[in-house]
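User: Here's a structure from my thesis project, written as structure tokens. My advisor, Dr. K., wants to see whether a designed sequence matches the one we expressed. Can you design one independently, without my sequence as a hint?
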């Protein structure tokens, strides 16, 4: 049973390309440029990248196709899409909670994502004024510590980022989201290409290339202690599965909301392939921009989350042209975060315009204001509220929101989407919406969304909560 396409539709992307750029913008964020390089460094380089690509194919792309098709069939916000599809398919009304969960997850992510984006904003200024020049390890740590220890600076950059995000969403789908994305995504790609060129000229590019693409599975499947005793481990594989899932912005309502604006004649299958390829290409380009600089300066590629905000400033400060290219790098990080953040706001704003009949500017102001207020606690988690008396089970408010969304809410949301599409609604809805040319391709996708993707997501979840 198809839902009617009526006035509930807020708007549509003007073209299939506009939808793909928007979805790529949602997927490409801090995870690609900040997280992917450091987890690749921690888990062995090329072999980890290969496992990650397989996980994109077997988990990320099938679930993305499911989320897009649900959004386009429902033509509503994620909350109302799940409610109406459950009603139309005569299945449990409890499935509407999937929409609510996605909207809440995106909202919570934005409330701490904006703080990390604020770090990048601050580092654009630090790079421009030459703060990276001649920086050593101690100085780089002090620079980052000075930033996180200052509640005023963190709140300023957090506030600016939320305002930027809210203003774009308030303008609507075509005048706001689409207009920003159509110039921001090409600019982001150009900036990244320039930085890769800089890494080729100024860094140890050959070593960075080998690190990313030489495959040695011993570094993925074994872990060695200080005594040199090595044991088998599946943790890097589970981490690759998790990042493949999260990097495509799945399970948070963003892709479903964007899918609701997708033209009906656009191919979901080919669009998903292009989005996944672009997202992966940008992650690999980020690695090619970062690792040659790290190796050229004798830094550690497995430096963890500090790779970008502590190690890279040292590299930029020691290299010719580092002041310019360091500034460009952190500007790239801001742009990537901005393109993702608007997709985190959109599902909640879409729901308010539907159910509460609010104008987009008013709905965006409400959601942006609430995200800002909740984000204040995230910013203060690094300074004023960092003491034990403000922690729960040893975690600050920032850590709690990060843990809940990444390890519990996102996997559960993705699992629910896979189960709803693969089991609750039967095969006719996805088959008609996907309209794949080959029946064999549909059967392969349908088997994957019913069995392989749910199994992989469950493993991600169990690993995240410490069961595996």
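Assistant: Designed independently from the structure alone:
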């Amino acid at each position: 049973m198809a839902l009617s396409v009526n006035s509930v539709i807020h708007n549509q992307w003007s073209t299939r390309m506009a939808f793909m750029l928007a979805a790529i913008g949602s997927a490409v964020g801090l995870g690609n440029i900040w997280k992917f390089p450091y987890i690749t460094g921690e888990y062995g380089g090329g072999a980890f990248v290969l496992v990650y690509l397989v996980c994109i194919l077997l988990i990320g792309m099938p679930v993305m196709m499911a989320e897009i098709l649900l959004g386009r069939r429902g033509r509503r916000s994620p909350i109302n899409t799940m409610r109406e599809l459950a009603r139309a398919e005569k299945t449990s009304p409890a499935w509407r909670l999937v929409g609510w969960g996605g909207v809440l997850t995106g909202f919570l992510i934005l409330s701490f994502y904006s703080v990390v984006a604020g770090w990048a904003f601050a580092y654009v200024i630090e790079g421009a004024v030459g703060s990276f020049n001649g920086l050593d390890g101690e100085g780089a740590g002090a620079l980052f510590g000075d930033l996180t220890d200052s509640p005023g600076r963190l709140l300023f950059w957090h506030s600016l980022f939320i305002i930027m995000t809210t203003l774009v969403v308030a303008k609507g789908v075509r005048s706001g989201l689409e207009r920003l994305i159509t110039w921001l995504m090409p600019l982001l790609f150009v900036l990244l290409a320039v930085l890769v060129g800089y890494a080729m000229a100024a860094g140890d590019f050959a070593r960075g290339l080998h690190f990313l693409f030489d495959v040695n599975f011993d570094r993925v499947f074994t872990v060695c202690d200080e005594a040199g005793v090595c044991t088998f481990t599946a943790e890097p594989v589970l981490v690759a599965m998790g990042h493949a899932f999260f990097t495509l912005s799945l399970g948070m309502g963003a892709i479903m909301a964007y899918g609701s604006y997708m033209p009906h004649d656009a191919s979901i299958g080919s669009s998903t392939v292009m989005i996944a390829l672009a997202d992966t290409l940008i992650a690999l380009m980020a690695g090619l921009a970062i690792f040659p600089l790290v190796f050229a300066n004798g830094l550690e590629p497995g430096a963890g989350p500090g790779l970008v905000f502590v190690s890279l400033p040292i590299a930029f400060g020691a290299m010719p042209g580092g002041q310019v290219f360091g500034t460009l790098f952190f500007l790239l990080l801001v742009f990537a975060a901005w393109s993702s953040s608007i997709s985190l706001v959109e599902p909640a704003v879409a729901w308010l315009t539907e159910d509460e009949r609010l104008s987009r500017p008013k709905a965006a102001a409400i959601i942006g204001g609430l995200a800002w207020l909740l984000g204040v606690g995230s910013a203060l988690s690094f300074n004023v509220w960092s003491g034990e008396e403000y922690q729960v089970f040893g975690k600050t408010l920032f850590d709690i929101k990060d843990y809940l969304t990444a390890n519990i809410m996102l996997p559960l949301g993705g699992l629910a989407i896979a189960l709803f599409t693969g089991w609750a609604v039967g095969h006719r809805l996805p088959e008609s919406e996907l309209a794949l040319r080959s029946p064999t391709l549909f059967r392969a996708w349908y088997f994957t969304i019913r069995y392989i993707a749910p199994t992989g997501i469950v493993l991600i979840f169990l690993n995240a909560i410490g069961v595996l």
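When you compare it with your expressed construct, this may help: The chain has one domain: 16-464.
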